[in-house]
Amino acid sequence: SHCTKCSCSSGKETDKETGNTKKKDKDQPFVPKIFFGTRTHKQISQITRELKRTEYSRVPMTILSSRDYTCIHPVVSSSGSNRNEMCVELLEGKHGKSCLYYHGVHKVSEHYALQSAHRLYQAWDIEDLVSLGKKLRACAYFAARELMVGADIVFCPYNYLLDPQIRESMEINLKGQVVILDEAHNIEDCARESVSYGVTESQLKAAREELDFMVNNNIRRRDHEPLRAVCCSLT
After folding, report:
1. Dist. CA 160–CA 125, nearest whole Å
2. Which residue, 157, 121, 124, is CA-closest to 140?
């Protein structure tokens, strides 16, 4: 006889239930998210402040921003330009350390879900999220990303929508969504910045010295000679 605690106890019923579930999913209309892109984080603050004054202030939302604005780890947040690298090292558990704040991300989403259930939910700003993260000892950076799943409005800088690498890393899918670009005449500058890279003369010289070593020691000479020529021409 079939067991009663798994799907094999009634195969036909399981198939029927699965079919009903698929039908329900199919009947449910697709509701697009609104991705609102701005040039600066300061403009997002202005927009969310205005949102609070409208009847849509209770709509689920989130704000995507860099670790520079949302990291609350005392060591990482006080570091210079390598916050991303330090964060990744903590998440990977390198040097035997991990981020305690990352493991508390769910506390933020639960807080806003509870507020929504009691009709106390209000539009918030990055500073509000960071303050809540510190209070709950939960990472504001990853909390904002988790809140994107249930959000109707997602605020973010232009490059989060324009740069394909950032879109991929932030798991942003714009297909079928609504995209609003505030002050869109600034898009050209943002697009140029997304595909541009800055390098100093000292970095070029250091790269050329390393490539000289590779070529002189016949290490993949065919690949490194053209790279050395590029460094020399740029210098």
Report:
1. 18
2. 124
Residues of the chain with pLDDT under 70: 1-26
Q: Where are the alpha helices (DSSP H) in 32-169?
A: 41-51, 67-70, 74-77, 83-91, 105-117, 126-136, 140-147, 158-162, 164-169
Contact indicator for 111, 132 with CB cutoff of 8 Å: yes
Q: What's the total number of domains in the chain?
A: 2
Give Rg (Cα) of the chain.
24
Q: Range of 211's domain?
A: 201-234
181 and 229 fall within a common domain: no
177-229 confidence digits (pLDDT tens): 999 999 999 889 888 887 888 899 999 999 999 999 999 999 999 999 999 99
Distance of CA 177 to the CA centre of its chain: 17
Q: Closest Cα partner for 58 from 112, 122, 153?
A: 122
Which is it for the CA torsion 111, 113, 119, 122, positive or negative? positive
Here the CATH number for the domain that contains residue 173 is 3.40.50.300
Q: Which amino acid is at 67?
A: R
Mean pLDDT rounded to a whole number for the chain: 86
And the tokens for 112?
């806003």
Query: What secondary structure, in 3-state letters, does 59-85 show?
Result: CCEEECCCHHHHCCCHHHHCCCCCHHH
**Residue 106 burial (10 A CB sphere; 0-12, 13-18, 19+):** middle
